[in-house]
Amino acid sequence: MNAPILSARGLQKRYGRVTALNDCDFDLYPGEILAVIGDNGAGKSSLIKALSGAIRIDAGTITLNNEEVHFSSPLQAQEAGIATVYQTLALSPALSIVDNMFMGREIRAEGIAGRWLRKLDHGKMREIAREKLSELGLMTIQNIDQPVETLSGGQRQGVAVARAAAFGSKVIILDEPTAALGVKESRKVLDLIQDVRARGIPIILISHNMPHVFEVADRIHVHRLGRRLCTVAPDDCTMSDAVALMTGAKAPPGESIAA
Amino acid sequence: MSETIPPTRRSAQDFETAVDSADRRVAAFDPHRRGPVEKLQHVLHSNPTLVPVIVLLGAVAVFGVVSGSKFFSAFNLTLIMQQVSIIGILAAAQSLIVLTAGIDLSVAAIMVLMSVIAGNLAVYSGVPAFLALIIAFVGGTAAGMFNGFLVTRVKLPPFITTLGTWSIFYALNLWLSGAQSIRSQDIDSAAPLLKVFGETIAIGPARITYGSILMVLVFLVLWYMLNRTAWGRHVYAVGDDAEAAELAGIRTGRTLMSVYALAGFVCGIAAWASIGRVGSISPQAFYEGNLQSITAVVIGGISLFGGRGSILGALFGALIVGVFQSGLRLAGVDVLWQVFAIGWLIIIAVAIDQWIRKVSA
Amino acid sequence: MKTLFAGSALALVLCAGTAYAEDTSACLITKTDTNPFFVKMKEGASAKADELGIELNTYAGKIDGDVETQVAAVESCIAAGAKGILITPSDSRALAPVVGKAREAGLLVIALDTPFEPIDAADATFATDNFLAGELIGKWAAAKMEDPSKAKIALLDLNPSQVSVDYLRDNGFLNGFGIDIKDPTKMGDEDDPRIVGNDVTNGNEEGGRTAMENLLQKDPEVNLVYTINEPAAAGAYEALKAVGLEGQALIVSVDGGCPGVRNVEAGVIGATSMQFPLKMASMGIEAIKAFADSGEKPQASEGLEFTNTGVELVTDQPVDGIPSITSQEALEKCWG
Questions:
Q1: Which residues form the signal peptide (chain B) (predicted)?
Q2: Is the pTM of this model over 0.90?
Q3: C270 and C286 share a domain?
Q4: Domains in chain B with CATH codes
Q5: Residue A144 CB: number of other CB atoms within 10 A?
Q6: How far is CA C175 from the centre of its chain?
Q7: Contact B46 A146 (CB under 8 A)
Q8: What is the CATH number of domain A6-94+147-258?
Q9: Contact by Cβ (8 Å): A91, A101
Q10: Cβ pair C217:B79 closer than 8 A
C-alpha cells in the first residue's frame, strides 16, 4: 500500500483538565474515503480541528505528503491543501455562488485594470465556477450569480464541496455533510462525495449516520477516548459491530490496528 | 489516480432504494413556481436598490404634480443635490460600516472635527491650504482607525465604540474651535481652496456644485471598490457572516480595520466638501449628521444586519430625504410634518428590508 | 478655560466649583456649555462671584433640551445648601416643578435669558427683552427699505418647537416692521402677503443656508431676511451669494456675538440686536449676594414681568429715531 498522504502521530490536546486527544494517530491514504466515527466527546472534532488548523496541538506531529506541517490557522491548512467543509458550510448567504466559490481566492483581471484598479475578472471566475460545478454534476444551476441563501440545503452543501474541491486541494474534510439534510438531498450529497473521490481527491468524512458511512467509506477510523481505537473496513464489519467498538462494548480485533 | 481502492458501492441501506426511482430534481438548481408576491420578493432580493429608486422617482413625480414647476425645475432638483451632498458623503462612509453589520455614530463628528482642524490650520496658523486638507484627510483616516482598533482589537461593539468616540471627537472639536465659527470672509481671504466645493457650474438654470459632483464620484468609486474588487467581496462576506468569512480564509480583522479607516478618510473628504457647502466652518453644524446618514443608509435599503444592499442605495436614500423635504416644504407643509414623514420612511424601509430577507428557495 | 468647558461636553454634569471657604454659595446652570453665549455667561458669573467672595458651582446640560441633567443639577444645588440658583432652563415648563422645590428649600431662583412658564416659577428673571430685540431690527429694516410695502420677507427661525425666544424675536421683528402678528406666541400664523415664509435653521450656518435656499425657491425676490441669530444669518448670506442675490436682500439678526458683529462690519448683516449675557450673570450673582445678606429679592423692570438686561441695536447704517451703536463700538462689548 502507498504511503499515507496525511498522517498524524502522537497528537495531544488538553483543555484544562480535560484530555481531548491522547496520543492519537491518524492516517489517510491517497484516493480513499476515510470515515471518522466516534461517540460524542470521544475527541473526533478535536482531531479534525487539529488537522484543519483550527486548534494548535500540544504535542505530536502531522505530516502531509511526508512533510511535517504546523498549522496555526485554518487559512494555513487551506493553503497547504487541506480544505474543510464545516457543518456550518462557511458560506456567505447573501453572496452569489461565484463569489462564495472564490472567497479569498479571487481572480484579478489582467492588465492595468487588475494591476492598478484591482479589478476582478468576473467572466473568468464565472466560467471556472461553472466548469467546477459541472464536473461534479451540479450544473443544473440556472443562475450562477444567485445568492447562496436562495439554494436548498443540499445545493449549498454542493457549493461548499465544489469550493473545497476546486482549488487544487490534496485532502477534503467533510464535517457531518448530511446531518441537516432530508433523505433525497442526503443521497445527492453522497453521490457528490463519490464524484469527488472519483476525481482522485481523498476525503475525511465525519458522520454519525452509520448507513451513510457504510455506504461510501473505504475505511472507518473508530475514535474512542481521545485516540484511534482501530480502523475497520466496512466489508468486514457490520454497523452494530462499529457501534459496539465506538461505545467500548466490544474490543477491537487485533489485526485491524495495523491497517 | 491510484489503484489502491476501487470505487465501490455497497448497498447497506436497501430502505433507500425507493428514493432512486423518485423524482430527484428537488436537488437541482431550478426555480419552482412562485406567486406574484413571492416573485416580487425575489426581484427585490436580487436588486436591493430597486425600492429606493422607485420611491425616489415616484416622489419626484408626485411632488412635481403637487408643487408644480417650483419643485420640478432644473434649479430646484440641482439644489436638492447640493443640499444633500454632505449628508450623502457621510452616508457613503456610513454604508461601508453598516455593510459590515456595524454602525458609526461618529461620522459627522469626525467630519466637523476635521473641518475645524483644517480651518484652524489654514486660516489662523498660516499653514498652506492643501497641507491643511491633507492633515484633515490623514486625521479622518486616523479617527476611523481608532474606531476600527476598538472594534477589532478591543472587541467592543461598534455602537458603543462610536457612541464614545462621537462624544470624544465632538469635545475635541469644541476645544479646538472654542465653539466659534470661522467666518466665510476669513476663509475667502486666507484659504479659498477650502471652499472650492461650493463653486457652481451653471448649465442653463441648473446649478451643480463641485460638492454635488464629488458626492456622486465618492459613491461611484466606493461602488467600484465594493463590487469589482476582492476587498469589496470580503467586506460583504464579513458583514454577512464574519465567522463563515474567517473559515473561508478571509482575514476579517484586517478587512474591518480597512473599512473603518476608509470610512474615516471619506469623512475627511466630507469635511472639505462641508466647508464649501456651508461657507463658514461651524463647530455646531451637523450635530445630527450621524443620524441623518443612518437614515439615508436605511432608506437606501442597506440592511443594518450587514452584508446586504448596494452602496448606491444610500445615495438614493439621501436624495429621497432631500426630495421629501423640498417637496413638502414647497407644498407648504410645516417642518414638524416633514420630520414625521421621514420617520415613516425609515420604518417602512426597515420593514421592507426584513421582508426581503425572509426570501428562500 | 477652554479645555475645561470642552471636556465637560462629555460629562453629563460639570461641577467646576472653585474651592473657596466662603459660606455663601451659588449655582449656575446653563443649557449647554458649548454655546459661546453660555460661555460668556459663565465668565461673567465667575468674575462677579470672585469679586463678591461667593463660591460658584457651574453645571450644564449636554445639549439644548437636556432636561434631566438640569433637574439633577438643581437637586445637587439644593443638597449642597446653596443660597441661590441661576438657571437658563432648557425647557421652560418641565423645569418649573424642580425649581419650586428649590424655592421651598429657601433658595433664591433666578432665570437667566430664558423665562420659566409661568414666569413667576422663579423669584426673578434676568433676560434680554427678546420681543424688543426683534422690534428694534424690525423698525430699523422698515426705516431702511425704500418701500416697506414691497418687502418680501423670509423668516429664518430656530426650530419647530415654538420656544419663547424663537417666537418673541420673530414676532417682535414683524411687529417692529409693521405687520399684524396675530397670536404673539405663535410663529407663521401671519397672513401678510409680504411674508414669503418661515423655515428653521437650528441656529447654525448650515441650517441658515439650507433654509434660505428653500425660501428663495418659494420666491426668488426675497429682499428682507430675518434670522434668529448671527450664525444663521451668515448661512443665509452664503445662500444668497451662491445665486448672486446678496445685493438684493437685507439681513437682520439678533445676538451680538463677536463674529456676528464683525459680519455687521463686513456688510453681511445689516443690523443686529445685541444682548448681554455677561451682565445677566453678574447681575444674578449680585442678587444672590443681596438675598444672602438681607433676604431682599430683585424686582422686575417697569412694565415687564422680568428684569431687562438691555438690548442695543448694532448697525453701521444708522437711521433717524432709532438709537444704535456702530460695529466698532459693538466689538468692545460683544461676547464670544
A1: none
A2: no
A3: no
A4: 49-354 (1.10.3470)
A5: 19
A6: 19
A7: yes
A8: 3.40.50.300
A9: no
A10: yes
Looking at chain A, the number of H-run helices and the number of E-run strands are 9, 10
Assess whether chains A and B touch, using the rule of 3 or more C-beta pairs within 8 angstroms.
yes
Q: Does B1 touch chain A (CB under 8 A)?
A: yes
> Which cell goes with B268?
475627511
- Flag if B279 and C238 touch (Cβ within 8 Å): yes
Domain count for chain C? 2
Residues in chain B closer than 8 A to A1 (CB atoms): 4
Q: For position A259, what pLDDT does the model report? A: 41
In three state form, how does the secondary structure of chain B look? CCCCCCCCCCCCCHHHHHHHHCCCHHHCCCCCCCCHHHHHHHHHHHCCCHHHHHHHHHHHHHHHHHHHHHCCCHHHHHHHHHHHHHHHHHHHHHHHHHHCCCCCCCHHHHHHHHHHHHHHHHHHCCCCHHHHHHHHHHHHHHHHHHHHHHHHCCCCCHHHHHHHHHHHHHHHHHHHHCCCCECHHHHHHHCHHHHHHHCEEEECCEEEEHHHHHHHHHHHHHHHHHHHCHHHHHHHHHHHCHHHHHHCCCCHHHHHHHHHHHHHHHHHHHHHHHHHHHCCECCCCCCCHHHHHHHHHHHCCCCCCCCCCCHHHHHHHHHHHHHHHHHHHHCCCCHHHHHHHHHHHHHHHHHHHHHHHCCCC
Please write the tens of the pLDDT for every residue from B157-216: 999 999 999 999 999 998 898 878 888 889 999 999 999 998 888 888 888 999 999 999
CA-CA distance, A239 to C153, in Å (whole number)?
92
Asked if the structure places residue C306 within a domain, the reply is no
pLDDT, tens only, A12-48: 998 888 888 999 999 999 989 999 998 888 888 889 8
- DSSP string for residues in C170-237: HHHHHHHHT---SSTT-SS----TTEEEEEE-TTSHHHHHHHHHHHHHH-TT--EEEESSHHHHHHHH
- Mind telling me how many Å the CA of B81 is from chain C's nearest CA? 12
Contact B330 C206 (CB under 8 A): no
Distance CA C276, CA C164 (A): 18
Break chain A into its structural domains and give their ranges.
6-94+147-258, 95-146
pLDDT of residue B1: 43
| ipTM attached to this prediction | 0.83
Residue C107 within a domain: yes
State chain C's mean pLDDT as an integer.
87
What span, in angstroms and rounded, lies between the C-alpha atoms of A219 and B8?
12
How far is A104 from chain B, CA to nearest CA, in Å? 6
- What is the CATH number for C261? 3.40.50.2300
CA separation for the pair C101, A208 (Å, rounded): 72
CA-closest candidate to residue A147, choices B356, B253, B92: B356
Rounded Cα gap, residues C249 and B220, in angstroms: 39
- For residue B24, the chain A residue with the least C-alpha distance is A184
Q: CA of C214: which chain B residue's CA is closest? A: B326
Query: Are B185 and C268 in contact (CB < 8 Å)?
Result: yes
Find residues 29-58 of chain B whose CB sits inside 8 Å of chain C.
none
In this complex, do C10 and B277 lie within 8 Å of one another by their Cβ atoms? no
Mean per-residue pLDDT, C138-157: 94
Are A188 and B308 in contact (CB < 8 Å)?
no
- Number of C-beta neighbours around residue C192 at 10 A: 14
d(Cα C302, Cα C146) in Å, to the nearest integer?
Answer: 35
How far apart (Å, rounded) are the C-alpha atoms in residues B126 and B147?
30
Residues C25 and C120 in one domain: yes
Looking at the structure, tell me whether residues C95 and C218 fall in a common domain: no
Domain of C179? Answer: 130-274+311-333
The counts of H helices and E strands in chain C are: 11, 13
Other beta carbons within 10 angstroms of residue B47's beta carbon come to 12
